[in-house]
């Protein structure tokens, strides 16, 4: 076993792995191989596990983004205009291509999340805690296709 910076020893583990992603929130990966320090709980992931974590993160990211209503997105032209650049510059921007502005594709067109574009314009990084997107809609009315509308709210444990 390898020694950790804290003085503890890394131990090999196999099983369910829970990770707190800074943008997506909690993620769970089944049947993961990793090493964990017995003292400080620091983790080391082999390449295969790291790739599985990235794949799971991408799946969750797409699920959350695709749940957002279309009015919460800009077209590429609107996003570029809001950032003060051309569409071509937006599509070629290295940070944008690496996911610093959340986007989705529909019918071959790319749509950019408005909140993410605004945050990118402000700070140069449009990544936000995606669980906020769900919470911001938790008090909006939900139609039951009946004559009366009911308000639902989400309470996290």
Q: Would you kindly provide a written description of the structure presented here, covering whatever features stand out?
A:
With 157 residues, the chain is an alpha+beta fold. The chain has 2 domains: 10-66, Ubiquitin-like (UB roll), CATH 3.10.20; 70-136, Orthogonal Bundle (Arc Repressor Mutant, subunit A), CATH 1.10.10. Helices cover 34% and strands 27% of the residues. The chain contains 6 helices and 8 strands, in the order βββαβαααββααββ. Strands 1-2-3 form a 3-stranded antiparallel sheet. Strands 4-6-5 form a 3-stranded antiparallel sheet.
Short description:
With 157 residues, the protein is α+β, with helices and mostly antiparallel strands. The chain is built from 6 helices and 8 strands, in the order E-E-E-H-E-H-H-H-E-E-H-H-E-E.
Overall helicity = 25-40%
Q: Which CATH class of the largest domain?
A: Mainly Alpha
Radius of gyration: 20 Å
Number of domains: 2
> How would a textbook summarize the main sheet?
3 strands, antiparallel
* Low-pLDDT windows of residues: 135-157
| Straight-line distance between termini | 37 Å
Name the CATH architecture of the largest domain: Orthogonal Bundle
Figure out the total of helices.
6
Percent strand: 25-35%
Q: Which whole number gives the mean pLDDT?
A: 83
Q: Given the C-alpha coordinates, what overall shape results?
A: elongated
Order of helices and strands: EEEHEHHHEEHHEE
CATH topology of the largest domain: Arc Repressor Mutant, subunit A
Structural class: alpha+beta
Arrangement of strands in the largest sheet: 1-2-3
**Count of strand segments:** 8
């Amino acid at each position: 076993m390898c020694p950790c910076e804290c003085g503890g020893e890394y131990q090999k583990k196999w099983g369910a792995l829970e990770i707190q992603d800074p943008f997506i929130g909690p993620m769970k990966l089944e049947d993961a191989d990793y090493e964990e320090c017995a003292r400080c709980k620091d983790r080391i992931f082999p390449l295969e596990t790291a790739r599985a974590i990235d794949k799971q993160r991408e799946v969750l990211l797409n699920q959350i983004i695709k749940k957002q209503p279309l009015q919460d997105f800009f077209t590429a032209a609107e996003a570029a205009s809001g950032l003060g650049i051309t569409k071509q510059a937006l599509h070629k921007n290295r940070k944008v291509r690496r996911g610093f502005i959340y986007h989705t594709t529909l019918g071959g067109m790319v749509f950019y999340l408005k909140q993410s574009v605004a945050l990118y314009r402000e700070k140069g990084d449009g990544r936000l805690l995606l669980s906020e997107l769900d919470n911001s809609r938790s008090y909006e009315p939900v139609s039951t296709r009946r004559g009366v509308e009911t308000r639902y709210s989400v309470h996290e444990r």
